């Protein structure tokens, strides 16, 4: 979903500023072509309007967005980030939420104009699925939203907006996007030629900018990166800020090779480690922020996809135990691990030191924390990891009882590659479509 909004100033408002503000003489310099607007280099601004101050309500082509709408949607964003949002960031998010609601309103209005309908039953079904993702019934989820300062009406409006916009694009954009067999076959050939190279599971936040607003967009990108590094949800920020249609899925681009990305992004993704977020990346039309979730080899067997058979040994500490009191237990646990001769005597060793044993045969190496993945890759059958854990959660060790190595990947299908190219082209046309809606909109702030 695309994310930006603008505003119009009425002729009466311009007149009021002119009357209230003394007219200051202006020295005219040579005109400079700024984005084709022919704006003089030396100008005087009449009035003291602060571009960072916005009122909390708006009327978009006659549809009212209330302060309650803004606050309830803001509460959703804050809840998605665990409530860990500083006050200054909260104010910036409030402005962004209002812009998002304006875009959402334009999208719903365009769907209505195109006679695109999203039924209440469909919205309710999606709402029920979201509630299930939170492990709550629809009623419990409504209560949860109310506790967080939001409402089911707010999230249902967002569901309706996203569904309506997808249907508009499927009717007005997608039929005019074509991808030839030759294009897809060329990518398949490059995939085979690059067998063994890395591919990346990437998330992206795209912030559009003109040459005049690049500095502002860069500053916004820096603030988003700072919040994500402090623990905020990348997906939640992508949904609210990204101007790519992948915003609706938290910015997820799926698995891509570096060559499939623009050159500026390709150079950066090669340098990222799983879990790492990039600095702002200048690209034509704005800035991108990348999050690398994972990486694997093209058409190869990634050893981190190996299925493991594990035993976990855990020693828990009583509440209030001191570091000095815990140290002997940790040392005894580490010494006991040295005596393990495969999984056959693990239960016996665990009983001698009072450790709990849990069996697991569903874990893949990539499912483990990054610190343990490298350790596990180098373990032989019957060996254990070093002790790990904390005073609060107890100390643990994993014993490798078996490992099933993965089969080589056949790579994405013809249809998957074709779909990805089509989606990229739909995204670009969708951005232009929404820009046109904004340009023609009448938006009043109250």
From TrEMBL:
Q: Which InterPro entries match?
A: OMP_Chaperone_SurA, PPIase_dom_sf, PPIase_PpiC, SurA_N, Trigger_fact/SurA_dom_sf
GO MF terms listed in the record are:
peptidyl-prolyl cis-trans isomerase activity
> Residues in domain PpiC?
197-294
Span-the-membrane segments of this chain are: none
Q: Which Pfam families match?
A: Rotamase (PF00639), SurA_N (PF09312)
Region forming the signal peptide: 1-25
Q: Out of the domains of life, which is the source?
A: Bacteria
Keywords assigned by UniProt, alphabetized: Chaperone, Isomerase, Periplasm, Rotamase, Signal
Report if keyword Heme is assigned.
Answer: no
Q: What is the official name of this protein in its record? A: Parvulin-like PPIase
Please report the organism this UniProt entry assigns to the protein.
Rhizorhabdus wittichii (strain DSM 6014 / CCUG 31198 / JCM 15750 / NBRC 105917 / EY 4224 / RW1) (Sphingomonas wittichii)
